[in-house]
Specification:
This protein is globular. Helices cover 26% and strands 34% of the residues. It has one domain: Pnp Oxidase, Chain A (Roll). It has five helices and nine strands, in the order H-E-E-E-E-E-E-H-E-E-H-H-H-E. It is of the alpha+beta class. 20% of the residues are buried. The strands form two sheets. The protein has a seven-stranded antiparallel beta sheet. Keywords: Oxidoreductase. InterPro entries: F420H2_bilvrd_red/Heme_oxyg, PPOX_F420-dep_Rv2061_put, Pyridox_Oxase_N, Split_barrel_FMN-bd. It comes from Nocardia farcinica. One of its GO terms (cellular component) is cytosol.
Amino acid sequence: MQQVGVLVIAQRRGGHARTLRYAQLRSYRSDGTPVDTPIWFRCDDTAVVFRTKRGPKTRRLTADPRVALRPCDHRGRVRPGAPVLTGRARLLDGAEAQCAEDALRERYGRQWNILPMVRIPGVVNVHRDLPLREKLRRARARTLWPDSAIVRIELG
């Protein structure tokens, strides 16, 4: 757990320990320009997994799997001097993706399926334009959404 320790380190707030909930993912465009995005994640011994909508980010990660992660807040703001972890990303599929989806749901609880569809000031929500009926169906779903991908980042 040493490699991912920076992301799971407990912070003291009001006498209670809590685990970091957000990380800033840095991926790279084909011209090498970095693109930073805040993500929800789950760590295991040597890797981080997260869910994202299929689109520009998944295309960037497929074309160039190099990534960097830093602790951040829900808007992607990183404190000066925050440590950086580097790794290589790959998209998961099948049972491996569903296992990671279940682990993410376990970590974030009900908010895992609900918050991605709610408008939060200052946060880009890629699922905001879904019809209400589809939002409700997805909120109850226990499977990976059809327009989403699970990404695993091997750190090191």
